[in-house]
Amino acid sequence: MLIRAMCYTKQVSRPRDQRYHEILERAARLIFQRGYEATSMQEIAESCGLTKAGLYHHIKTKEALLLAIMHYGMDLFEDMVLAKVGDIADPVARLRECMARNIALVTLDSSKEVTIILHEHQTLTGVAKQEINTRKKRYVGFLEAAFREAIERGQVRPVDPTLAAFSFLGVVLWIYKWYRADGKLTSRQVSDGMIDLFFEGLMPRS
Question: Looking at the domain that runs over 2-7+68-200, which CATH code has it been given?
Answer without folding.
Answer: 1.10.357.10
